[in-house]
Specification:
Shape: globular
CATH architecture of the largest domain: 2-Layer Sandwich
Number of domains: 2
Mean pLDDT: 96
Largest sheet: 6 strands, parallel
Helix content: 25-40%
Number of helices: 9
Number of strands: 16
Bound molecules: adenosine-2'-5'-diphosphate
Strand order of the largest sheet: 5-2-1-6-7-8
Low-confidence stretches: none
CATH class of the largest domain: Alpha Beta
């Protein structure tokens, strides 16, 4: 395969850095790599598998000659610059939510709906939301076999899903609160100050991930609804979402109950998931976010037949939100694009 000129936009961020290491790990055929970030980072040097690369300012970038651009610098940057990179000839793989629901932009989970990637009239491919991505790795194979009809999904999302600022906020609050365990126990602890979340995330759980959108649901919750339907190409799937932020650094968990067009039991569900690429079913141990951190596979555990409304499946899925939930899938999409040539 001929090597490609690759750009990573948002290269200094949590996902951008993971993209760089996964491109190297998977030996993506890189001819030249260019790194872009804000003016703050422009001129700084990043050590990569392809040598020390100087970061360029996105706002003054000339995208000529770039074959594949992986964007993870936030929705506003994607909205402004992804079309410019695409117009200059690059295939853009965009990790933001900017284009996910655009009918002319495919939304692709590698190993779930690869076939959708070829139809990209805008030259842009969207990488799904991290929580939806992990859940679709489990839901996809079950849907193909039995037709997903409805789903109740509750996420347990780590702070790295909010970028480096989420991680910094958790660690800073732990430092403020840790010296006083008695106050923590009595509930009278000092306010550690919250910049990123609506409440302290250290030693706490916040049942509100994302920002308020419509009907009392957050944008993260609506992503679970609309992105699941688009990825599975099934606009009628009923989704009841709740997204929760938890004091975990990496690894998003989702507890989901699913019902299908026909009854599905745990024996068949386990067979289907065992055969699915990128999915590992755990039966002896319970997979936690820590187990998923740093690995590529999404882990599924706690498979149970539903008891209240029979015929469905309860499961727990957990995945590294920076890897399969973002950077790994983006690189897998780049591999699919590369394989077309
Ligand atoms: P920078 O490090 O220069 O701010 P994270 O989500 O982990 O916080 O990372 C966000 C990424 O997006 C970083 O690489 C960041 O670069 C980049 N970014 C943020 N704002 C801009 C901007 N206005 N122009 C270009 N890149 C930006």
């Amino acid at each position: 395969m001929n090597p490609f000129n690759v750009a990573v936009v948002g290269a200094t961020g949590a996902v951008g850095r993971t993209i760089l290491s996964i491109l190297a790990e998977r030996q993506f055929p890189v001819k030249e790599i260019r790194l872009f970030a804000s003016a703050r980072s422009a001129g700084s040097v990043v050590e990569t598998a392809w040598g020390a690369i100087t970061v360029e300012d996105l706002t003054t970038a000339d995208p000529a000659g770039i074959d594949i651009a992986l964007f993870s610098a936030g929705g506003d940057r994607s909205r402004e610059f992804a079309p410019k990179f695409a117009a200059a000839g690059a295939v853009v793989i965009d990790n933001s939510s900017a284009f996910r629901m655009d009918p002319d932009v495919p939304l692709v989970v590698a190993d779930v709906n690869d076939e959708a990637i070829v139809d990209r009239p805008r030259g842009i491919v969207a990488n799904p939301n991290c929580t939806t991505m992990d859940l679709m790795m489990a839901a996809g194979p079950l849907h193909r076999a039995a037709g997903l009809r409805s789903m109740v999904a509750t996420s347990y999302q780590s702070v790295s899903g909010s970028g480096m600022t989420g991680v910094v906020e958790l660690l800073r609050q732990i430092d403020v609160l840790r010296p006083n365990p008695d106050a923590l126990r009595e509930g009278g602890f000092e306010d550690p100050g919250s910049d990123v979340y609506v409440a302290p995330i250290a030693f706490n759980v916040i049942p509100f991930a994302g920002s308020e959108k419509e009907l009392g649901y957050t944008d993260e919750e609506w992503k679970l609804v609309y992105e699941s339907r688009k990825i599975l190409d099934a606009p009628g799937i009923e989704v009841e979402p709740t997204c929760v932020r938890v004091p975990v650094v990496t690894g998003h968990g989702i507890a989901a109950t699913m019902w299908f067009e026909r009854d599905l039991d745990v024996v068949e569900a386990k067979e289907l998931l065992d055969a699915a690429p990128g999915v590992e079913v755990w039966t002896d141990d319970v997979p936690t976010p820590l187990d998923s951190a740093g690995i590529d596979d999404v882990l599924v555990g706690r498979l149970r037949n539903t008891v209240g409304v029979p015929g469905g499946i309860n499961l727990w899925v957990v995945g590294d939100n920076l890897r399969k939930g973002a950077a790994l899938n983006a690189v897998q999409l780049a591999e699919l694009v590369a394989a077309e040539r």
